[in-house]
Design a protein that fits this description.
Length: 162
């Protein structure tokens, strides 16, 4: 049974959440929701194998708050670029050398970069030692690297002790 339903509580939650989002209960929606509720945990089952240890949970909370603030500020910067077309945009691809180790911290850093408007993580190197980042408006690539190292990567090293 656990092979076909690896996370029964998650499946039940997904089904109920699906039906709440639909705002109605019909046989078709129940069947479709049940299919999603079974397939999503099966598809994501491998991700639950990773054990995550937060060595500094309060720092993790601070990181989330910092990220939310940075997302809001970056949205204003992107809006200014769009609304003020006289501003010079200087896109760039940057190879960012990683100091952190581990799949989860690297994934969190790559996601953080992609969540912040104006930047996106395009690729993680095969050896896992660098990220390829596209920046919409990069005046100084070295300054961008230092900003990411000081603002995000340093905090992730503290949170995960990596």
């Amino acid at each position: 049974m656990s092979k076909f339903i690896p996370a029964p509580w998650l499946s039940l939650f997904l089904l109920v959440f699906w039906l709440l989002l639909q705002n109605s209960i019909t046989p078709g929606l129940i069947v479709l929701g049940a299919v999603f509720a079974l397939l999503i945990p099966l598809y994501t089952n491998r991700a639950r194998d990773f054990r995550l240890t937060l060595h500094r949970p309060l720092k993790a909370l601070q990181y989330i708050v910092l990220l939310i603030i940075d997302i809001i500020l970056s949205n204003f910067n992107i809006a200014a670029i769009i609304l003020l077309p006289q501003r010079k945009v200087k896109p760039a691809l940057i190879e960012y050398p990683l100091d952190i180790t581990g799949e989860i911290p690297t994934t969190i850093l790559a996601s953080t970069i992609s969540l912040t408007p104006g930047t996106i993580t395009a690729e993680v190197s095969r050896d896992g030692r660098s990220l390829l980042i596209h920046g919409l408006n990069v005046q100084d690539p070295e300054a961008m690297i230092e900003q990411i190292k000081n603002r995000y990567e340093r905090r992730l090293k503290e949170i995960f002790q990596c």
